[in-house]
Structure formats: C-alpha cells, structure tokens
UniProtKB/TrEMBL annotation:
InterPro entries referenced in this protein's UniProt entry, alphabetically: Amino_oxidase, FAD/NAD-bd_sf
Signal sequence bounds: none
GO molecular function annotations of the record: oxidoreductase activity
Lineage, uppermost ranks: Eukaryota, Viridiplantae, Streptophyta, Embryophyta, Tracheophyta
Domain Amine oxidase: 57-473
Pfam family, one: Amino_oxidase
Official protein name in the record: Amine oxidase domain-containing protein
Length: 481
C-alpha cells in the first residue's frame, strides 16, 4: 500500500540536498522460459539521515531534539495519530483518555519541552479521598491544604506518626537530585515504606491504592527509585489534566515538527542492515527505507523484540532478573447528568477498603469541565490488571454495584456506560533490580528509547528520546548544541 501522508503535507524521501523522481525501477533479467517471471529487487528508498520509528512521547522527544539541531529525519507511526499510549478519544461529546493518566507539572524534562500555558492545565485537589469502613476520609497535602490536613490527623488513614513520616519522606526526596534518585540503591516500594516505618494501615489504605494506581502495581513491587522520583515530583508540582485531553501533550510536540517529517498509518515490520551496516527499515507495504545516520526505535519493548526478531538484542535484564509481565489496567467511563454527580471537587477517590475491584476513580469534568458537554459529567474508573476472564458486561455491572456502595444506588444506577478500555501494556514492569539509565546504543546505527529504558513515566519517555539522539550524535561525531 502507499505511504500515507499527514493532511496537507508534501514529503520528500530524500534529504533536502538530494533529488529524485521517486520512480520505482524494476530490472528485467533474461530468462529461458516465457512463463518464468523475472525476480524484482525490493525498492530501496533513500530517506532523510535519521529514521525514528514510533510517534509516542519518546519518538516525539527524539524528533524534537533532531529538529532543534537541524538534522533531517523521518518519523514513522503505525497508527492514525501520535501519542502511543497517550491518546484521547471523543465519544458522544466526551473526552476519553485511553486509561488513567495524570500529568505532574514538576516533571523536569517536560518543563523543558512543553508550553504549559498552551496546554491549559487543570489541577486536581492536592490529596485524595479514601473509601474505608463505609466512609470517605481525606488525606491532604499540608502545604497546599493546611486546614484539611489538620482535620485529617485523627482519621483512620494512618496514625499521626504516619503523617509525620510523610513529611520526613518529602524532606528526604527533596534533598536529592533526580540523577541521584535514579541511581540510588533500591528495594521494592513496599520494602521502602516498611523500612521508613509506615504502619500497615497507612500502607494498605493509602499507599497501595495511590501509588498502586500510578504504577498499576497494587503489591508495590515497583522499584523505590521510581517511588522517590514520583514522590519528589508530587511534592514540587500539581496533578493536572490538559483541558482538551491528555493527548494535547503529544499533539503539542508534533505540531512543532516540520509538516513533511511525519508519516501516519505506516507500520514497520523489520529493521535490518546492509553490507555497510546502514540500517534498512522494511514497511508493511514492502517498501524499504535506508537511513544515512541511524534508526531510533521508539516503540514498546514487545514491538522492539518483534521488529528486530533476533537480529539485534535490546539490553539484557540485570543479573538475576527474569522477564517480568507488563503492567495492565482496565478503565471504564460513565456519563451522567450534572445533578447525579455526588461531589463537585476535583479530587481523586481511592479504594482503601481492601475489598472490591476498583482501585481509583474521579470525575473528570470536575477537574476539567471541557471533558464533557455542558450540563453533563464524566466519571473515570480504574482497575488494576486486565480481567481477561471477565466479560465487559459483567465487569461493568460489578463496577456499578461497587460504586453504588460508595455514592448511593439512587445516583450511580442512572449513570450511562460510554466505553471500556482494556490496556494490556500500560507500563513496563519496573520491580528491582532495575537499570533506569540504559545505554540506548544497541548496534551500528541503531538506538532504543521508551519508558522501559528509563523510568515508566511521561518524563522518562521524554528523557529516553533525547538520550537516544545524543547517543546517535556522539557516534556520528556531530556537534551537540
């Protein structure tokens, strides 16, 4: 099939200094029999110096860095839009992010790349409401909601000592640089919390649903490095949503790229090398693209394994680490009339009861009214795991039953289901031992980036894209800006 261009774009397969008619030439080879067709060599199309595979956050960050250094590139994306896992759908006038995603404003790499004013970020309440023992209890950031935090000292979500330990943990992470955090000695998050001295009630009722929801890991096996990184970002910044949906983040990055540098609906099936070790990229259409400087693979690790198919190997796991299953989630969306919303606050609700299948939920239109039509509201409900053996209808019924216990059946039973997202690969599994600063260079002219190369966060994906380009530039002896 032909390559699909973005609307209104004109694209040259050659670098700006090259010329081509873009015609495919097939050679006629003499043959003894008129019934035997001559073999046709695959079409090799010479492209701009660098090819980036995948237009998720990592690929967009790589493209942004190449563009800032005036290095021509071609960005290939298999789907119909940029963002990878960071996408938003419009359903009946509602904005549905593909899974539970919150943007933390203190992400250091994001601060360098994104214009927050243009994103029109809408803030969550700095804390959470936790469902426990049939009631909701507030946990608040004392620096942002002092009076709420004082009132919460006597609630059953941990002891007064637990609240003091949170403050001390805040001081500890703020005293470290991000680089120190990423290379520090590590244990699992659950072991770190126990080492600090948090009570079982604080861990079970707050940390498991809150950080379990961030990591899609209710057992809190995720590395303490990632816990400290996220905890520091939460201390310094706000939890937010872009007013027009989470995919405004990748859309903003893509909008700054040359219009002829991005091809959508263009699936890569393999990456090989020619006799000179120059990477060759084969598309599903059969066309082969040749890179002059290098190929940056910015796709999820399972896709990397499939595309390389044993030709080159990504960095091996640390010694003693087995291949771990990815983190999965299910996200359900419900619409309702405004008078059926039980609260008006932009707060995250956590399940601290230890029962049921819901991990967390929130009313997206309380955070950003633009997520739904006027006079309507939107609820987002997240489960951890894929629930492969449970049908969508059964899952929806169980969620409605559980939420009826939280907010009352008279309100919840009138909610209308919009869509269920089952996301098998929500995040890479980053339980110890980990290497959050992997070398992106895996062979002549071939580089990897993605959140599995750094930290499983928005920021980690952005960092990995930049680092892959820096490795390419170093290898090619190009001047760094």
């Amino acid at each position: 099939m032909p390559l699909t261009l973005l609307p209104s774009s004109s694209f040259s397969f050659l670098s700006p200094t090259s010329k081509s008619t873009h015609s495919h030439r097939f050679f006629t080879i003499p043959h003894a029999s008129t019934t035997q067709l001559a073999p046709k060599p695959p079409p090799v199309i010479k492209t701009d110096p660098v090819i980036v595979i995948g237009a998720g956050l990592a690929g967009l960050a790589a493209a942004t860095r190449l563009n800032s250094d005036n290095i021509p590139f071609l960005l290939l994306e298999a789907s119909d839009g940029v963002g990878g896992r960071v996408r938003t759908d419009v359903v009946n006038g509602f904005l549905l992010d593909r899974g539970f995603q919150i943007f933390i404003t203190a992400y250091p790499e994001a601060q360098k790349l994104l214009n927050y004013n243009e994103l029109n970020l809408r803030k969550f309440y700095s804390g959470a409401r936790i469902y426990y023992d049939g009631k909701f209890h507030t946990v608040a950031d004392p620096l942002r909601h002092f009076s709420d935090s004082v009132l919460s000292l006597g609630n059953p979500i941990g002891s007064v000592l637990d609240k003091l330990l949170i403050a001390l943990t805040r001081v500890r992470v703020l005293s470290k640089s991000y680089e120190e955090i990423m290379s520090a000695d590590e244990v699992s998050t659950i072991q770190l919390l126990k080492n600090i001295g948090f009570s079982d009630s604080m861990i079970g009722r707050f940390f498991r649903p809150f950080f379990g929801g961030i990591f899609f890991d209710p057992q809190l096996e995720t590395t303490s490095r990632l816990f400290d990184f996220v905890f520091k970002c939460l201390a310094l910044g706000d939890n937010t949503l872009p007013a027009k949906g989470i995919d405004e983040i990748p859309n903003q990055l893509a909008a700054k790229l040359p219009s002829d540098s991005l091809l959508l609906n263009t699936k890569v099936v393999s990456v090989d090398s020619d006799d000179s070790n120059s990477p060759l990229v084969t598309l599903e259409s059969g066309e082969i693209l040749k890179s002059e400087l290098g190929v940056i693979m910015a796709v999820e690790q399972p896709a990397v394994d499939k595309i390389l198919a044993g030709k080159k190997q990504p960095p091996p796991p640390p010694p003693g680490q087995r291949k771990k299953p990815a983190r999965s989630t299910v996200c359900l969306y419900f619409s309702m009339d405004q008078d059926q919303v039980p609260v008006q606050d932009p707060v995250l609700f956590l399940n601290g009861s230890g029962k049921g299948i819901i991990n967390n939920m929130f009313f997206a239109t309380n955070v950003a009214p633009s997520y739904g039509p006027s006079n309507k509201a939107l609820a987002s409900v997240s489960l951890i795991g894929l629930y492969e053996n449970t049908a969508d209808d059964d899952l929806r019924a169980e969620v409605i039953k559980e939420l009826s216990g939280w907010f009352g059946a008279s309100k919840v039973e009138s909610w209308r289901h919009l869509r269920t997202y089952r996301i098998g690969f929500a995040q890479p599994n980053q339980s110890p031992p980990t290497d959050l600063m992997k070398n992106p260079d895996i062979g002549p002219g071939l580089y990897l980036c993605g959140d599995y190369m750094t930290s499983a966060t928005f920021d980690g994906a952005l960092v990995s894209g930049r680092r892959a380009v820096e490795a390419l530039l170093k290898d090619r002896a190009l001047a760094l800006v």
